Amino acid sequence: MTDLSSRNPDWWRQAVVYQVYPRSFADADGDGFGDIRGVTERLTHLAGLGVDALWLSPFYPSELADGGYDVADYRDVDPRLGTLADFDAMVAEAHRLGLKLIVDLVPNHTSRLHPWFQEALAAGPGSPARARYVFHDGRGAHGELPPTDWQSVFGGSAWRRVPDGQWYLHLFIPEQPDLNWDHEEVREDFRTTLRFWSDRGVDGFRVDVAHALAKDLSEPLRDLGTPELSADATLDQLPPGTHPFYDRDEVHAIYRDWRRILDSYTPPRMAVAEAWVPSARRALYARPDELGQAFNFEYLQAGWDADELRGVITGSLETAHAAGASATWVLSNHDVVRHASRLMLPPGTDANTWLLSGGHAPDIDPVAGLRRARAATLLMLALPGSSYVYQGEELGLPEVADLPFEVLQDPVWEQTGHLNKGRDGCRVPLPWTRTGPSYSFGAGAAWLPQPESFGAYAVEAQDGTEGSTLELYRAALKLRRKLLTGETLTWTAGTPAGVLDFVRGDGWRCVTNLSGAALPLPAGEVLLSSGPSAAGSIDPDTTVWLG
Questions:
Q1: Among the listed residues 312, 155, 320, 331, the one whose alpha carbon sits nearest the alpha carbon of residue 231
Q2: Active site residues
Q3: Confidence class of residue 434 from pLDDT cuts 50, 70 and 90?
């Protein structure tokens, strides 16, 4: 059994981490938004589920221009979510229940409301205050053109002009000005932030947009030359480490500096990078002297196809091993269509087009989607490494694809001129009971409307119900904790087409049937199955663990 106690500095290597999007988890004060006290009151749900840690998405003061990822103060709690005292109480209760706590850190950009940025706007061109950010004169006869052709992730130029004529960089939305990580004051402030939360008992950090901090700001600034392409696309066209603002080699010195701080605590604080980079480059972020672990987005993006998944799994394990890290696996998070819906979309379907149709082009069978999601989950939990679970997936929640346009909150909707529906459909607040104005998310209505179908998915509806998705997760996580030892797997020879079959180092076996036909059940004791099958077989879209 893997030791996940406070005495084990490597508790994170095969942990199950539950992502809490705090504004949508639980609302203790009845204002329609989730809050820190709501998280604390529901921690027994996570402990009973059997996860090892929770990852708390941003809870800092913010104008919510990007769901909290526009941070106005890195060392405080948004008043709408609570206080530092509430945070400390949450940490104490999590640790009492045996749960670790990971917090989101957003170092690439601040909110436009951050005191530093307000100071920069007031100070004017050439001031020390502006040096903390990326300000630059424009091109053209009167500086009326952006300094470069760099594009924002959410569409349009990555530069915004201020009244005095200069431009500032925002790789995301204009409300998120990019910091200048060449500036020592920026680096020192984040060292202070790491210590601030670590001193309050935080066990680790999830680093947002970890690959974007270092930028080539040497003169003249470089155009990418392909403004019609996304930054991710241009990343693949340039020699590794040379993109002007993504995945530059210089970024690793920042994380080596952080690691010295994280390792000064007992046990050392863990960290995981959100780095959208090719797998060989991802390994650099996961090195032991840097963040130690990095998200594996190839797995999330893989289709429901045995050959594709086997290739991704094999490659991911090799990449993690090369870095001296453990692999990471994730099926859903706050930025993507929930996998109970996404895995049912036909290959080649554009997820945004499907969302714009309200989830009707094509229609998705929720029963079939849930069956496939359960099989995918049991497969993920059998893999060596850490599994990151997004809130609500233990209930089998589908994407809320039919949110009315007028209720959308995601800035992507406005930033793209109503061409991209955004991520609100996976952020709809959780249902805790079968009935009530927000299914007991809070005392009143929630900040995003919940569909009537949510009552059937509620914790109350599934708790103690044999065969429910909630009980499947509880059983799987309890069994997983007993079964885990090493961090390797061996693929079974002679596996039929459309089937994934592997044995873990300590002898237990996972078989997933992704084909369209029933598969004969291999010899061995059935420890757990993601769904019912005919006697002596494994039905399509089913995963079985064998002992």
A1: 155
A2: 208, 274
A3: very high
CB atoms near residue 292 (< 10 Å): 27
Query: Quick check: 2 pLDDT over 60?
Result: no
Q: What is the pLDDT of residue 227?
A: 66
Q: Are 182 and 75 in contact (CB under 8 A)?
A: no
Burial zone of 207 (CB within 10 Å; 0-12 exposed, 13-18 middle, 19+ buried): buried
Contact 351, 345 (CB under 8 A): yes
What's the farthest any 2 CA atoms get from each other in the chain?
78
User: Are 400 and 428 a contacting pair, CB within 8 Å?
Assistant: yes
Helix-helix angle 469-483:366-382, to 10 degrees: 10
SS3 label, residue 501: strand
pLDDT in tens, 80-107: 999 999 999 999 999 999 999 999 999 9
Q: Are 133 and 109 in contact (CB under 8 A)?
A: no
Q: Which candidate, 399, 403, 397, places its Cα nearest to that of 446?
A: 403
CA distance 135 to 126: 9
- CA distances to 26, 38, 78 from 82, in Å: 13, 10, 6
pLDDT of residue 230: 64
Contact between 546 and 508 under an 8 Å Cβ cutoff? The reply is yes
d(CA 82, CA 166): 37
